[in-house]
Specification:
The structure is a homodimer of 313-residue chains. By secondary structure, chain A is of the alpha+beta class. The first copy, chain A, has two domains: 3-139, PurM-like, N-terminal domain (60s Ribosomal Protein L30, Chain: A, 2-Layer Sandwich), CATH 3.30.1330.10; 155-303, Phosphoribosyl-aminoimidazole Synthetase, Chain A, domain 2. Helices cover 32% and strands 27% of the residues of chain A. Chain A has eight helices and 13 strands. In chain A, the strands form two sheets. In chain A, strands 8-10-7-11-9-12-13 form a seven-stranded mixed sheet, sandwiched between helices. In chain A, strands 1-2-3-6-4-5 form a six-stranded mixed sheet. In chain A, strand 1 (21-23) and strand 2 form a beta hairpin. In chain A, helix 2 packs parallel to helix 4 (177-190). Chain A is globular and about 60 Å long. Chain A starts with a helix and ends in a 10-residue tail after the last strand. In chain A, 54% of the residues are buried. Chains A and B meet through helix 1, strand 2, strand 3, strand 4 and helix 3 of A and helix 1, strand 2, strand 3, strand 4 and helix 3 of B.
Chain lengths: 313, 313
């Protein structure tokens, strides 16, 4: 059973009928709540020893990754992360040394990511280590952004450079909180009423995550092969794997880069005024025909192969 | 290492310096946050297979207990639970049947406990099953109530009847959301400005949890042995264990009953107007001398023995 189909099942069983729930269980990584006119965003990520991190991983690294994953979910929906609650299940052999180093790493991560750790639970585990982090926050002005909402004609932009994160970048991936704040602040000031129309973070590879955004928005997309910002790691990974750097940029996950769709006039204005001050690249556009297409440098198009990381049970 | 000492350690490392954090990591089970004048309560509970539930436990029961534990934390601090996020780590052998029955049980529990499940994460576990639930909510008028705040002269009251929950009640313990709402509503109407001064839920036994409330409030307490509401299960448990029913009422955990301190005039007014309509019993009073005392039926006092369930690593 694939995680996707289980989540779909859960969603059907748990479909919330509560008016305060603007966006609940899936398809978005982040829930959006509203009560008494005030909005709240919440996202949970869980990690298991032997699945998401190796048994020898540094506890501080595990703490950073678990917190960063949820902070990235909030950034992707144009929300500011503020508070975190952390569950830690720990085997008798690992505690207490592991726990202390985890807590120290968590404190450092919280400071770096500008989140306050406000609660949690610690339990003993008969097996491996398990971490679950819930991050709470608030939409930035113009937010939240969801997976649905992309419109034909919108441009697709990504932050940073893609591919090869498993060569090391995945150990300390940086959520793009600063970048999304810069973009949303820009829109509020210079293109009032016009904000990014949809977005998510590229956790399972650009192609797979783009297909999710398009499915939820009911649109298609065209990616321009020669516009994709290739990370230096994508080139190194390609040397090792024998695959192309482009293929790594399209399919490698664990990057936390953002994929956003936005009206072309917003992008033009942003490029004109903010050129060089932010790390965004246009990589394609949204189309109306529902197909996912890769346009090669020579102008020819072919269907985009949807490869990426799907968690298996 | 005992859970208590680890949490104390964590608290020191993670001491939040954020003005929005009114109550953060410990000693309370619930975090209290405030931003733009609006208040938020959040609590997390984690359960592990083989520690908090048996491998053969019904998935729906596990779902109920994990959600109820956090809802009870909010009730104990006079907050209304509204939303939940749920992490589930599941072994390949258990999924997907286990997951579906868990989700169905969770949907039922959410309806019963009046909470909307709005998000979560599902991952594969190389070992046993783990569940982590974060519940979000808002303080009732007059809330939140913390572990600190009890004053000498305050009365101690509990909900329900105590002891012997392991005979079966612990499988479906009922958070006292309705009772705390009734009491807070009463105070708002009839004793304005006077609310319960401190409280918590009795998860690890009355004696141990009372000692926690007293420590945080910097006070002592006297319990009246012949006032403790003994559950019928406390009598049955005593027959089996050879211990006294009183001892079971003082030391058995997993009950989710509430322990509250409140000004005596609030209690008098509440008893006068609401007699019989709510399930509260006065069991003792707060004292100024820092000692914990049990007063027997014959008037003699002896030190209260602090026995209860402390999670061990």
């Amino acid at each position: 059973m694939r995680e996707n189909s289980f989540l779909a099942e859960l969603r059907e069983i748990l479909a919330p009928g509560d008016a305060s729930v603007k966006v609940g269980c899936g398809p978005d990584d982040c829930a959006h709540l509203e009560a008494d006119g005030r909005r709240l965003a919440a996202s949970t990520d869980a990690l298991a020893e032997g699945v998401h991190f190796a048994s020898g991983a540094h506890p501080g690294e595990v703490a950073y990754k678990s917190l960063a994953a949820s902070v990235s979910d909030l950034a992707a929906s144009a929300c500011r992360a503020r508070w975190a609650l952390v569950s830690l299940a720990l085997s008798r052999e690992a505690a207490p040394g592991w726990a202390i180093r985890f807590a120290e790493g968590l404190a450092g991560a919280a400071a770096e990511l500008e989140v306050a750790v406000v609660g949690g639970d610690t339990i003993s585990s008969p097996g491996g280590i398990f971490v679950s982090v819930t991050v709470l926050g608030e939409p930035l002005a113009g937010g939240p952004i969801l997976r649905r909402g992309a419109k034909p004609g919108d441009l697709l932009v990504v932050t940073g450079a893609l591919g090869g994160s498993l060569l090391g970048r995945h150990l300390h991936p940086r959520p793009r909180s600063r970048e999304i704040r810069l973009l949303m602040d820009f829109c509020r000031e210079f293109t009032p009423g016009r904000f990014p129309s949809a977005g998510l973070d590229i956790s399972d590879g650009l192609a797979l995550d783009l297909s999710r955004l398009c499915r939820e928005s009911g649109v298609g997309a065209e990616l321009y092969a020669d516009c994709l910002p290739l990370s230096p790691d994508a080139l190194k990974a390609a040397e090792k794997s024998g695959l192309s750097p482009l293929r790594h940029a399209l399919s490698d996950g664990e990057d936390f880069e953002l994929l956003l769709s936005l009206p072309p006039e917003v992008w033009e204005e942003f490029r004109r005024r903010e050129a060089g001050s932010a790390d965004f690249t246009a990589v394609g556009k949204i189309t109306g025909d529902g197909r996912l297409v890769l346009r090669e440098a020579d102008g020819r198009s072919r269907p985009l192969e949807i490869r990426g990381y799907e968690h298996q049970w």
